[in-house]
Design goal:
The complex is a heterodimer. Chain A is α/β, with parallel strands linked by helices. Chain A is 23% helix and 24% strand. Chain A is globular, with a radius of gyration of 16 Å. Classes of the chains: A alpha/beta, B alpha+beta. Chains A and B meet through loops of A and α1 and α2 of B.
Chain lengths: 227, 79
């Protein structure tokens, strides 16, 4: 599987994504600068975490208008898989490739810690190495991660099985939802099943030496499907 | 030409910043405050043939970048 990682001014998880992709696939991903208008031929495009363009106006809003994201949209329309992590998820909602929006956390704080997620779909391009209903631990690091969509949109995306990850309830019965996301949504897939966005950082949980490996299987799923 | 664009959150969209501001106003003794909603004010200077052309262009700017229609409303005023 050949991957490209998009690098925006302000991206800060691009190299984490690249290290994990290389560790899992054995192939170094192409790093593509935000001003580039064309992408190399790849099977997967990763929009990494960070603060593209300083999060000015709204998180992901500027990046959604950048030349490289126009190219990403064209590749996505051809069926190339796209994974947006954290700021990448915000960019995907700002472009309209995924429904809804990511807003300021309900508690107003930047939250950087491990969270537990429930795998809602283990039959996607991105998650086939997981088990349906499995509980996994993956870190989050964001201030604008509160997922919002209106009731009608939420009913539609739930009905079409687009929710892939949800924040899992705490062991003591608390909601476990760290940021106020509607219906505990942590990760979504589009209708085609080729575009996914999630707030948690699987690339930061892909090496046992760094505190967890529950995110690694997301990249293994992609390798399995896209090879 | 100068324009002022006001971007506000739609009704029903949670505004935790507005709520924090309301709480701060309460603790300052402004007990009559019932609700606070925070938005953005954007001023644009632009060249346009006439007011109608300016409004058309500003509307397009709002739809494409300045406001997110999923969560926000906008209002354009020419000054």
């Amino acid at each position: 599987m050949k991957a490209a990682v998009i690098v925006f001014p302000g991206s800060n998880c691009d190299r984490d994504a690249a290290v994990t992709l290389e560790a899992v696939t054995g192939v170094k991903p192409a790093m593509v600068w935000h001003g580039d208008e064309a992408l190399p031929k790849v099977d997967l495009i990763v929009l990494p975490g960070g603060f593209s363009y300083g999060d000015y106006l709204r998180s992901g809003a500027m990046a959604a208008q950048s030349p490289v994201v126009r190219a990403v949209k064209a590749e996505a329309a051809r069926g190339v898989a796209v994974l947006g992590i954290c700021n990448g998820f915000q960019i995907l909602t700002e472009t309209g490739l995924l429904p809804g929006a990511l807003m300021r956390n309900s508690g107003l704080n930047f939250i950087c810690r491990n969270v537990d997620l429930t795998v809602e779909r283990a039959d996607t391009t991105f998650t086939n190495a997981y088990t349906q209903g499995e509980r996994v631990t993956i870190p989050i690091a964001h201030k604008d991660g509160s997922y919002f969509a209106d009731d009608e949109t939420l009913d539609r995306i739930e009905g079409e099985g687009q929710v892939v990850f949800r924040y899992a309830p705490d062991a003591d019965g608390g909601s476990g939802n760290p940021n106020g996301s509607r219906r505990d949504i942590a990760g979504l897939i589009d209708r085609s099943g080729r575009i996914m966005g999630l707030m948690p950082h699987p690339e930061r949980a892909a090496d046992a030496a760094l505190g967890g490996i529950d995110g690694r299987r997301l990249f293994e799923s992609l390798t399995r499907t896209l090879n | 030409m100068k324009a002022r664009i006001t971007v506000t959150l739609k009704n029903g969209v949670l505004d935790p910043q507005g709520r924090a501001i309301a709480n701060a106003l309460h603790s300052l003794g402004f007990g009559g405050v019932e609700d606070v909603r925070q938005g953005k004010l954007i001023e644009v200077e632009l060249k346009a043939a006439d007011e109608a052309a300016a409004k058309t262009e500003l509307d397009a700017m709002c739809r494409q970048l300045l406001a997110n229609p999923v969560i926000e409303n906008y209002r354009v005023e020419l000054l």
